[in-house]
Fold:
Amino acid sequence: MDKSTIICRCEEISYEEIEEVLTNGATTFDDIKRLTRCGMGPCQSKICHSLVASMIHEKTNTPYFQIPLPRMRMPLSPIKLETLATNSTSFSSVKSVMDEVELEDGKVR
Amino acid sequence: MDRSYETIIIGGGVVGSSIAYHLSEQTKEAVLVLDQKFPLSGTSGSTQAWVWVHNKTPSWYAEFSMYSAELYSYLSKKIGDVEFKRTGGLSPFFNEADREKAVRLAEAYEQIGIKIKVLSREEALEKEPFLNPDVVGATYSAIDGNVNPFRLVDRYMRAAKKNGVQYSTYNKVTEIQKMPGKFIVVSEKGEFSCKNLILAGGTWSRELGKLVDVNIPINQLRGQILVTEPLKPFLNYTISGLRQAFNGEVLIGYSMEQEGFNRATTLDVIQETANMAVHYVPSLKKAKVVRAFSGIRAMPEDGFPILGKIPGVENLYVAATHSGVTLSPLIGTLMTELILEGETSIPIDRYSISRFAK
Ligand SMILES: Cc1cc2nc3c(=O)[nH]c(=O)nc-3n(C[C@H](O)[C@H](O)[C@H](O)COP(=O)(O)OP(=O)(O)OC[C@H]3O[C@@H](n4cnc5c(N)ncnc54)[C@H](O)[C@@H]3O)c2cc1C
Ligand code: FES
Structure:
């Protein structure tokens, strides 16, 4: 790999960009992800995570088994919002900002 | 690494790093930031990052938020591009009863200089054509916007380091000793001493407070967010509930659950969030969700920031708040004034931790 090698294809992040944040103190895949977007693309790091692991290993001498895996999140592979939606319009955990505005004697609190 | 500092800040999230940066602009004395992981591993790395003002209540809190939002343009000039966009903020409503509230809000906030327009259905749809045509109206204010939280914290940190601030990461603070005129901060990587100590531990503030026998009444409040694939720009405003980022992704979510420090995402809230998305912007139906994430808000017991000196312990300070992204430029500025000059240009007495002692 040289400096311009693309490590994360989805987000087009190069070896050099990841090297820079590693030098700046990033240690785990998730640190690198938040600073560079590497791993945030449509494949959600399925392609880039092993390359990044080898970079972490190379730069920090951390043994492979000690490098934490990126946090995998639902839905694992992209799905349409309409597949998730249940068409209900009653909400419990999800709030509306306007509900938080309260009137007291006809005045905003 | 040095062991002795003028000031130590525990917590390198958006709040701690903003204080570190603003402090480093004003003083050459040594500053150290300690973080148990890496900055952005806490709440600042899992947030919606609206810079939000217009329907915060009560009005004094909205006013405080406004001063901070006003600082953003200047801040981006100083620390570099943080993808701050003053898009204007839009809060749609779907029943007539909310219009009454909206009108009252606009009247009340006119007096403090926050301009809110109450839009009719047609005006709302004209501004944001992809809104649900069933919308009844919306409140709108030009003051609101959003920012890229990753870039923001990274830029604060880089600018602070450039000015000489040191960071010690993956280094949890486990003990704090109060000595005459100084603190000894015991961490996983050894002991440090300092004159001024600032607790900026976000959602972990209560735990940090225990190390100095101070009750910092911060609770946890989880929020879950859905992220879509990048879509071509189609949303013009920051909508309270969803926003489109620079790269085209739409971030959706405004949920609140008391689940302690559990950062799982759950299907029920993901589904509710999807329902909100298609209720607000029906054409999102066809957009693909790439990822769900959750973050744990630091929620003060009464909902308002806890800022300033900790009474009874000399040179000990706390900064813990919800909406830390919106408030970080102001908090950094005011905490710096407080530490260096002993007073602040905008009063923060209202936000003192002493209010909980009553
Ligand atoms: C879903 C969601 C949506 C949100 N939306 C918005 C929004 O739209 N606009 C807005 O303004 N705000 C929003 N917020 C709130 C905002 O993100 C937070 O207020 C802000 O990130 C808090 O920053 P912080 O620096 O206090 O906390 P953090 O980023 O959590 O930083 C605290 C740091 O302290 C460190 N720490 C803790 N204990 C120790 C210890 N013992 N030793 C060493 N280090 C320690 C942690 O490692 C952490 O890095 C949202 C939050 C969530 C969860
Ligand atoms: S290659 Fe990195 S996210 Fe797909």
